[in-house]
Specification:
Strand content: 25-35%
Order of helices and strands: EEHHEEEEEEEEEEEEEHEE
Helix content: under 10%
Radius of gyration: 20 Å
Distance between the termini: 46 Å
Strand order of the largest sheet: 5-1-6-8-9-10-11-12-13-14-17-16-15
Number of strands: 17
Largest sheet: 13 strands, mixed
Oligomer: single chain
Number of helices: 3
C-alpha cells in the first residue's frame, strides 16, 4: 500500500512541501512522518496539522491536496513516485534529480524549474516558466523529461540546457527563451518571440508560427531523417499524437538566434 497524504485543513495561505519526498519518508515510521515540519503561510507547523497520513511508507507517495496552493511538491526528489490527485501549486518538481511526478490536474508556475533528472507528467495545463530557472538563477531544465498534456504559459523552456520538454497544447510568449541546449516540442500554437536569444538546442513546432524573431534565419527544407532519434523519443510519450509525416518528409529549419551568435534550430514539422 502507498503512503497517502490527504489535506484535512483548508489553508488560506500557501503550503511549502519541500523535503516531503518518497526517499525521505520511506525510512520513517508514521508517527515520525506526522511530526515533520513544513511551512504554511510563513510559519513552521507539523505535517499532521494540515495532512492526514495513511498507509505504509515506501517509494510511492500519493498526495491529495485541498486546493492549488500547495507548492514545491516533489522538489529535489531523487527516486520513487509521487502521484498528485489534484492541482499543483508553484515549483512542482523543482530541482528534481530523479523519480516520477504525476500531476492529475494542472500545474502552477515554475513546474520542473531547474530539474536535473526524472520525469514530470502534467495531465492539464501549466503556468509560466515551465522548466525555467528560479528567480535569479541562470540554469533551467538540465535533464529529464517534462510532459505537459495541456497548454503552457510564457517562458516555457527558458535557459534549458538538457532534457526534453513536451507541450501537447499551445505555448505562450518566449518559448525557448535563452535556450542553451536540449529539445522542446510544441504540438499546438506558439505565441510571440519563440526561440529568442537561443544559443543551441532544438525547438520542434507542429504548427507554423505566425512570426519568428527576425534574427532566426530560414536554413532551407531538410528530410525528417535528421530527427530520427528525437522523433522516436516523442512517439514514446505521444502515442498516436505525433506528426503523421514519414521520415522521407521534408521540414523547414530556422537557425539562430544570430543576435547572440546562436546555433540553435527551430524545426517546423508541418
Amino acid at each position: 500500500m502507498s503512503l497517502i497524504l490527504r489535506q484535512i485543513n483548508e489553508q488560506k495561505g500557501r503550503i511549502d512541501l519541500r523535503g516531503i519526498t518518497p526517499q525521505r519518508l520511506a525510512t520513517l515510521e508514521l508517527p515520525a512522518i506526522e511530526q515533520l515540519r513544513i511551512t504554511a503561510d510563513h510559519q513552521m507547523v507539523p505535517l499532521s496539522s494540515l495532512f492526514s497520513v495513511e498507509g505504509d511508507p515506501m517509494d510511492e507517495l500519493i498526495i491529495i491536496p485541498g486546493n492549488n496552493r500547495v507548492d514545491y511538491i516533489g522538489a529535489r526528489m531523487a527516486s520513487g513516485t509521487i502521484t498528485l490527485s489534484g492541482d499543483a501549486g508553484n515549483h512542482a518538481g523543482s530541482g528534481m534529480l530523479g523519480g516520477r511526478l504525476l500531476v492529475n490536474g494542472n500545474g502552477g508556475d515554475f513546474t520542473g524549474s531547474a530539474m536535473q533528472g526524472g520525469e514530470i507528467i502534467v495531465q492539464g495545463n501549466v503556468g509560466n516558466a515551465t522548466g525555467a530557472p528560479s528567480a535569479g538563477g541562470l540554469c533551467g531544465q538540465n535533464g529529464g523529461v517534462i510532459h505537459v498534456q495541456g497548454h503552457a504559459g510564457d517562458r516555457a523552456g527558458e535557459c534549458q540546457r538538457r532534457g526534453l520538454l513536451i507541450i501537447e497544447g499551445d505555448a505562450g510568449d518566449l518559448a525557448g527563451y535563452r535556450m542553451i541546449a536540449g529539445t522542446i516540442y510544441v504540438g499546438g500554437r506558439t505565441a510571440e518571440h519563440t526561440g529568442l536569444g537561443m544559443r543551441r538546442g532544438t525547438i520542434l513546432l507542429n504548427h507554423r508560427p505566425d512570426q519568428l524573431p527576425v534574427t532566426l534565419n530560414h536554413n532551407g527544407s531538410l528530410p525528417l531523417t535528421m530527427l530520427t532519434l528525437v522523433i522516436r523519443q516523442l512517439r514514446h510519450y505521444l502515442v498516436g499524437k505525433t506528426p503523421e509525416a514519414t521520415f522521407a518528409h521534408h521540414v523547414d529549419r530556422y537557425v539562430g538566434d544570430l543576435a547572440c551568435q546562436g546555433l540553435g534550430e527551430i524545426i517546423v514539422l508541418t
